[in-house]
C-alpha cells in the first residue's frame, strides 16, 4: 500500500499539467456554482423573509376611493385585510429636483414599514417617517425637520423614523432603469399633519386576499367605479427581484455546468493517456501479484484526490467571496435590510457528487485497461493507421499536413477537446464584447434615436399652465396608462361575451400626439408610423403570439368595453412593454385622451415656477441611470473574459502538453531523421492553428446563442435590442487565435529538450 501511495504521488507529479487542469476546472466550476447559487439563493431567502415579515400586500387598487369603498373591500369574504391610503407626490422645500411619494393612512399593517432608526409608524403621533436611503443621501436625521410641498399645500414635521418599505425594494421612477435615491424616495406622514380643512381622501388601497389573487375581485366589489388594480406578481418590487433571481440562476447553472463538463473531459483524456503510457508498469504489477481490484483503487485515487481538493476548495471560496462581490452592485438596485449568501444543506454534497462522478468515469476507463492478464497487457499497441481514412485529402497535402491530419484522426478525443476549448473561449469572449456593445448602444439608441425628447414633465398644472409648458418646451402631450389585452384569440364582435372564458394580460398603454419625440422603431435602424391601428411592443407580441397585420382586442384602464384594433407594427421599446398608438387613433376608437405628461426640449431659461409645481425628469438623468447600470454589467463582462482566458489557457496548454507527450517518440524520430527544431515546431503549431480556426468558426455562433440566452433572462418589462460592432467579431477571433498561438509557442519550446536516446529506447 505504501508503494502504491508513493507511486500515486509520483504519477501526479509526472502528469502535473493534466492534474492541475482538472483541479482548476473543478475549482472554477464549483466556485461559480456555489458563489452564484449562494448569491441568488441568499437573495431569494432574505427577500421572501422580508416581504413575509412586513406582510406585503397581495394587490393594490388605485382610483378615487372613499372610506365606504375601503369598508366594502375589507368586509368581502374574499378579502382578509384592506387599508386605504392617500398618496401625493410632494417636493421637499429647498430641493426642487427631488420628489417624494408621500403616504397618509390611519395604519400601516399591510406592507409594514421596516424601521431602520426611530420608532414604528403611528398615525396618532404628529410626525414623518422618511425613506432611509433618501435621508442618507440628503443628510436628514431622526429628530430633524422636513418641509414638503404639494401645489398650494405645505406640510412640515419632525422626522420620527428612517424606514424601508417592501413596496420600494426596487424604487426606480417610471421610465428609469436605476433608482436615484438622492432625488426620489417616499415618506409616510401622519394624517394629523394635514392642514386644517384638508380631508384624508383615499386614492389607493392595499389589500390582502383570502385566496387567489385576481384583479377582477376589486372591480366586482366596487361595481362600476373606475379603478386600476395590480397584483403582487406585477408590482416592480416583486417582479424585478424575481426576474433577477431567475437570471442569476440560469447564468450560474450554465457556466458551472460548462466548466464541470470540461473537467470531466480532461479526466477522461488524462486517465486514457496515463494508463496507456503505464501499460508496462501495470503488466509488471499484475505479474507481481497485485490484483485488479487493488490496481483499480490505486488509479481511482489519483482523480479522487485531485477532484475532491479542487471541488471542495472552489465550493468554499465561491460561497465565501462571490455573493458579497455581486451584492456590492445589487445594493445599488434593490433595497433589502439583510444581505447574505445562503445554500440549502443538500448543496454541500456538490464537491462529493462531482468527485464521485469523475471517479465513476475513471472506473470504467480503468476496468477496460486492467481487464486483460499481465501477458496481454505487456504487448505493445500497434499504431492506428488513421491516414487511410482520407486518401483523397492526403494527396493534396504536404508532409506536415498529412502528419497532422493522421494525428488528429488517431487522437480524436484529444482533438475534440481542443476544439471544445477554442470554441468555449471564443464564445465567452464574443459574448462579453457583444454584451458591452449592446448595453452601451442601448443608452444612445433609446435616448437619442427612439426617445429624443430632452425633458418630461408630469403632475401637470391646469390647462393654462399646460399650454405654457407646451410653448416653452416646443413640446407635445403624452398619455401613459395601462390596458388589458384579451388573450385566447378572441377578437372583433362577441369579445365582451367571451371575456369570462378568456384571460387578460395587463400591459402599458402609451398614446403620443406624433412620432416627433417618441419614435416607433421596428429595429435599430428602421422607424415607422402607425395610422388607423396600434403598434405592439415585440415582447408583448411574442408572449401573445401576435404578428403584424393581426388583430388585438383590448381596453384601456377603467374602460368598460373592448376595442378591436389592427396591429400595424411590431416595435422595440426598451423600457415599457405594451400598446403604442397615436392620439388621433385613440380618440377615433371612442376614448377620451387624458394627457399625463408633456415631452419636449429643455427651455433655455428654465421652467420658472413650474419647477415647484410639476415633477420634471431630464433625459440626461435617465442616461446617467443606464450608465450606472453598466457597473454591474462590466463585472459580468469581466467574469466572462476571465472565464474565457482561464478556459482557453488551461484547456489549450493541457492538451498541448498532452499532445507533446503522446508524440514524444515521433518527434524524437523526426529529429533523428534530420528535421530541425524549427520545422518540428511549425508542424506542431500548424495542427493547433487548424483546430483553432475551426473552433473560432464554431464559437462565433455559439457566442451569439449565449448572448441571446443571457438577454432572455432580463425582466419582462425590458427589451434590449442586440447590437454588435464589427470590432467585437474581430477581437473575439483575434483574441482566441492569439491565446492559442501563445500557448502553442510555449509548449513547442520543449522540442529542443527532447532526449532522442531515451525516447527511442521506449519504442
From TrEMBL:
Region (Disordered) residue spans: 487-506
Keyword entries, A-Z: Cell membrane, Membrane, Transmembrane, Transmembrane helix
Bilayer topology annotation: Multi-pass membrane protein
Organism: [Clostridium] hylemonae DSM 15053
Residue ranges, compositional bias (Basic and acidic residues): 494-506
Record-annotated ABC3 transporter permease C-terminal domain positions: 254-373, 639-755
GO cellular component: plasma membrane
Cell compartments where the protein resides: Cell membrane
Protein name per the record: Efflux ABC transporter, permease protein
Record GO terms (molecular function): transmembrane transporter activity
Sequence similarity: Belongs to the ABC-4 integral membrane protein family.
Record PANTHER family: ABC TRANSPORTER PERMEASE YTRF (PTHR30572:SF4), MEMBRANE COMPONENT OF TRANSPORTER-RELATED (PTHR30572)
Chain segments annotated as transmembrane: 254-275, 296-322, 342-365, 416-436, 633-655, 689-710, 722-743
Pfam families in UniProt: FtsX
Amino acid at each position: 500500500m505504501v508503494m502504491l501511495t508513493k507511486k500515486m504521488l509520483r504519477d501526479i507529479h509526472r502528469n502535473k499539467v493534466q492534474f492541475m487542469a482538472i483541479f482548476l476546472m473543478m475549482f472554477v466550476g464549483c466556485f461559480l456554482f456555489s458563489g452564484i447559487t449562494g448569491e441568488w439563493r441568499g437573495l431569494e431567502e432574505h427577500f421572501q423573509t422580508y416581504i413575509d415579515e412586513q406582510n406585503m400586500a397581495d394587490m393594490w387598487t388605485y382610483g378615487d376611493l372613499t372610506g365606504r369603498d375601503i369598508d366594502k373591500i375589507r368586509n368581502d369574504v374574499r378579502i382578509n385585510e384592506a387599508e386605504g391610503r392617500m398618496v401625493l407626490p410632494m417636493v421637499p422645500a429647498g430641493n426642487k429636483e427631488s420628489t417624494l411619494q408621500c403616504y397618509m393612512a390611519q395604519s400601516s399593517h399591510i406592507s409594514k414599514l421596516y424601521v431602520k432608526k426611530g420608532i414604528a409608524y403611528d398615525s396618532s403621533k404628529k410626525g414623518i417617517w422618511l425613506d432611509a436611503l433618501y435621508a442618507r443621501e440628503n443628510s436628514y436625521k431622526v429628530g430633524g425637520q422636513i418641509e414638503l410641498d404639494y401645489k398650494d399645500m405645505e406640510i412640515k414635521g419632525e422626522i420620527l423614523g428612517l424606514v424601508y418599505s417592501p413596496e420600494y425594494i426596487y424604487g426606480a421612477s417610471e421610465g428609469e432603469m436605476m433608482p436615484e435615491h438622492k432625488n426620489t424616495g417616499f415618506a409616510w406622514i401622519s394624517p394629523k399633519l394635514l392642514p386644517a380643512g384638508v380631508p384624508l381622501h383615499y386614492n389607493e388601497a392595499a389589500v390582502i386576499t383570502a385566496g387567489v389573487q385576481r384583479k377582477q375581485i376589486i372591480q366586482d366589489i366596487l361595481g362600476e367605479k373606475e379603478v386600476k388594480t395590480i397584483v403582487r406578481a406585477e408590482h416592480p418590487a416583486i417582479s424585478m427581484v424575481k426576474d433577477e433571481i431567475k437570471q442569476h440562476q440560469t447564468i450560474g447553472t450554465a457556466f458551472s455546468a460548462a466548466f464541470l463538463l470540461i473537467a470531466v473531459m480532461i479526466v477522461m483524456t488524462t486517465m486514457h493517456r496515463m494508463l496507456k503510457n503505464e501499460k508496462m508498469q501495470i503488466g509488471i504489477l499484475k505479474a507481481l501479484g497485485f490484483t485488479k481490484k487493488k490496481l483499480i483503487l490505486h488509479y481511482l485515487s489519483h482523480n479522487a484526490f485531485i477532484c475532491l481538493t479542487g471541488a471542495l476548495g472552489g465550493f468554499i471560496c465561491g460561497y465565501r467571496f462571490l455573493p458579497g462581490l455581486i451584492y456590492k452592485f445589487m445594493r445599488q438596485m434593490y433595497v433589502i435590510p439583510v444581505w447574505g449568501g445562503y445554500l440549502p444543506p443538500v448543496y454541500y454534497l456538490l464537491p462529493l457528487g462531482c468527485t464521485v462522478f469523475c471517479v465513476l468515469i475513471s472506473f470504467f476507463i480503468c476496468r477496460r485497461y486492467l481487464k486483460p492478464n499481465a501477458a496481454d497487457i505487456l504487448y505493445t499497441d500497434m499504431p492506428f493507421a488513421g491516414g487511410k481514412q482520407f486518401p483523397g485529402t492526403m494527396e493534396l497535402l504536404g508532409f506536415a499536413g498529412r502528419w497532422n491530419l493522421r494525428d488528429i484522426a488517431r487522437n480524436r478525443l484529444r482533438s475534440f477537446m481542443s476544439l471544445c476549448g477554442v470554441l468555449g473561449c471564443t464564445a465567452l469572449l464574443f459574448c462579453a464584447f457583444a454584451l458591452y456593445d449592446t448595453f452601451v448602444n442601448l443608452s444612445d439608441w433609446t435616448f437619442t434615436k427612439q426617445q429624443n425628447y430632452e425633458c418630461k414633465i408630469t403632475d401637470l398644472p391646469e390647462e393654462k399652465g399646460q399650454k405654457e409648458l407646451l410653448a416653452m418646451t416646443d413640446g407635445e402631450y403624452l398619455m401613459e396608462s395601462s390596458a388589458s389585452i384579451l388573450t385566447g384569440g378572441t377578437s372583433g364582435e362577441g369579445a365582451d361575451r367571451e371575456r369570462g372564458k378568456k384571460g387578460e394580460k395587463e400591459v402599458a398603454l402609451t398614446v403620443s400626439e406624433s412620432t416627433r419625440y417618441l419614435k416607433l422603431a421596428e429595429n435599430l435602424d428602421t422607424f415607422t408610423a402607425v395610422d388607423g391601428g396600434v403598434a405592439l411592443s415585440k415582447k408583448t407580441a411574442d408572449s401573445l403570439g401576435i404578428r403584424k397585420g393581426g388583430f388585438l382586442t383590448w381596453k384601456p384602464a377603467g374602460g368598460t368595453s373592448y376595442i378591436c384594433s389592427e396591429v400595424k407594427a411590431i416595435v422595440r421599446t426598451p423600457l415599457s412593454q405594451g400598446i403604442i398608438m397615436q392620439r388621433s387613433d385613440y380618440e377615433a376608437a371612442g376614448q377620451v385622451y387624458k394627457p399625463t405628461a408633456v415631452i419636449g426640449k429643455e427651455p433655455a431659461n428654465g421652467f420658472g415656477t413650474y419647477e415647484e409645481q410639476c415633477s420634471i425628469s431630464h433625459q440626461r438623468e435617465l442616461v446617467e441611470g443606464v450608465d450606472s447600470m453598466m457597473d454591474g454589467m462590466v463585472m459580468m463582462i469581466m467574469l466572462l473574459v476571465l472565464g474565457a482566458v482561464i478556459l482557453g489557457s488551461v484547456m489549450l496548454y493541457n492538451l498541448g502538453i498532452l499532445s507533446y507527450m503522446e508524440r514524444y517518440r515521433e518527434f524524437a524520430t523526426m529529429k533523428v531523421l534530420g528535421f530541425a527544431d524549427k520545422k518540428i515546431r511549425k508542424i506542431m503549431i500548424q495542427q493547433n492553428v487548424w483546430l483553432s480556426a475551426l473552433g473560432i468558426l464554431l464559437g462565433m455562433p455559439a457566442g451569439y446563442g449565449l448572448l441571446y440566452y443571457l438577454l432572455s433572462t432580463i425582466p419582462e418589462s425590458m427589451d434590449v435590442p442586440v447590437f454588435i460592432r464589427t470590432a467585437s467579431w474581430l477581437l473575439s477571433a483575434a483574441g482566441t487565435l492569439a491565446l492559442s498561438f501563445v500557448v502553442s509557442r510555449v509548449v513547442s519550446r520543449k522540442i529542443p529538450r527532447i532526449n532522442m536516446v531515451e525516447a527511442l529506447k521506449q519504442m
